[in-house]
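quick one: flavin mononucleotide bound model?
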Amino acid sequence: MQKLDEIILKRQSCRSYDTKPVAKEDIIKCLDAARLAPSACNSQPWKFTVVTEPETKAKLSALLQIVGGNKFADAAPVLIAVSEDECPKLMPGVLERWSCKHFAHCDIGIAIAHFTLKAAESGLATCIMGTFEDCDVKELLDIPKGDTVRAVLALGYPSDDKIRGKNRKELDEIVRFID
Ligand SMILES: Cc1cc2nc3c(=O)[nH]c(=O)nc-3n(C[C@H](O)[C@H](O)[C@H](O)COP(=O)(O)O)c2cc1C
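yep, here:
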């Protein structure tokens, strides 16, 4: 059993994938970890469109490269579009009063964190990608027009096992204790 701290350090954005395919049961384990994420009013406003079919995957990969980056997505054996439901089911009153808080953005971020950490635990690598035109991805994958694709995840085996150090702000830059 790996410790959560180890998995957190192991999870990193992978931009070089091996061609080895990912077993469907391993993809499902990651999706199930995402499914168990918390969400506002337990609204679970997420959908996952898993793409392994080569032609569709190549088209999706091209849509991720519109600003020149994400070329590595071509080699990833799995691409997963994470979309947000048009009308997340929040408790009466919550949506009207606090819609400005965009709870679903937060919910989807947590689900993606669960997914990527589960993948890391399983020896898989991921990269979260955000540079694409939502409407193009929705059209390609037949995702309902009113939904919003928040991210596309690359999933696969990394081409090497090197773990990079984390480049992060120090705790004293981001934390205030009010004791
Ligand atoms: C919402 C979001 C969008 C991102 N979009 C991209 C992207 O389009 N391409 C990419 O290579 N990395 C993308 N990243 C990965 C970040 O660059 C990466 O998480 C950050 O630099 C920290 O590095 P690490 O993930 O290796 O720890 C994205 C991450 C997030 C959370």
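The two ends are 35 Å apart (CA to CA).
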